[in-house]
Amino acid sequence: MGSFSSVIGQRTAKSRIRPLLLGNPEQAYLITGPEGIGKRLFATAMAKALLCEAPNEDGGCGTCGPCRYFAEKTHPDFIHLSPQSGEKMIRVASIRERVVRDIFMFPQISNRKIYLIEADYLNEEGQNALLKTLEEPPAKAILILTAADTDRLLDTVVSRSVRISLTPNTEREIIKILKNVKNTDEKDALPIASLSKGIPGLALKMADDESLSEIIEKIAELLNSLPHISLSELLTGQFSFFDKNKDRINEVFAVMQMGLGDIALLITDQATAFLRVIDKRDNMIRMIERKKINVKSVDRASVHLAEASRAIRSNYSFETSICSMLLSIRKEFCND
Ligand SMILES: [Zn+2]
Fold first, then answer.
1. What does pTM read for this prediction?
2. Domain boundary among 165, 199, 232
3. 22 FRET partner, CA 20 to 30 A, in 98, 287, 315, 324?
4. How far is the CA of 21 from the centre of ligand 1 (A)?
5. How far is the centre of ligand 1, averaged over its atoms, from the C-alpha of 232 (Å)?
């Protein structure tokens, strides 16, 4: 762990950073990217490589003394600043003590000292306290800042650092991450990969969220049986599921869109379609044939869904929006 191979994807950032780490590193970096993208993981791999005695293309060698200390989280030349437990921000006093003053002490076991600072948790005073250090860091020190929200940072902080941007992962990469970290199987990972929009932190949270798998199951059930559900069941039992998940209706809609996408795939490419929501493939294929559901009806269903989502965002009645959507989609699925 802690090497660049443990960071899945991020090819551009890695190829930018590798030659710097192996050659003459800059003295201040700013790693940016949305929350949950893996900034800390990336910054940690950088720190390990910079402290290692024999770094290679993958970062730290993993076997030298400094790498072993690093793995045990006892490397004295690696200083990581994040808020103390129970606190929202990094204290200005910690910045002064653990960075501004400490940076002039010689490294103990590596050739340099690395400061990893989670800059989203620095208030303006904290950033100001860092400025002078960022401007003229001692030769043996490197600062690595991470930030999701660069608008909060002082221009002078941003301009003094070399910026490395992390970007959303592909669905395949998210599936690989879920498999590596959570041992999630492909079937469960597919819908999460779509929903997480390429953010590993979000995908990992979703994998732990049992209520999300319930939503996926419930939507699969609804789509599988839509033409057979009575109107009264649709407007009471099925509506109550949506009502219960009112707070996360966007996720419910996203799962439903995915389910409709599955149906469209089954119409066009039965044999090889990778399904994300629909679980009873044969059942669904029979229904598609019996009810003569075609891609156009699925497209229209998808439009009804988008309309309901828009209506709710514009504060139309939740109940009316959901019920009229369910009725319209059911109609598209009843072509017999
Ligand atoms: Zn090493």
1. 0.84
2. 165
3. 98
4. 13
5. 67
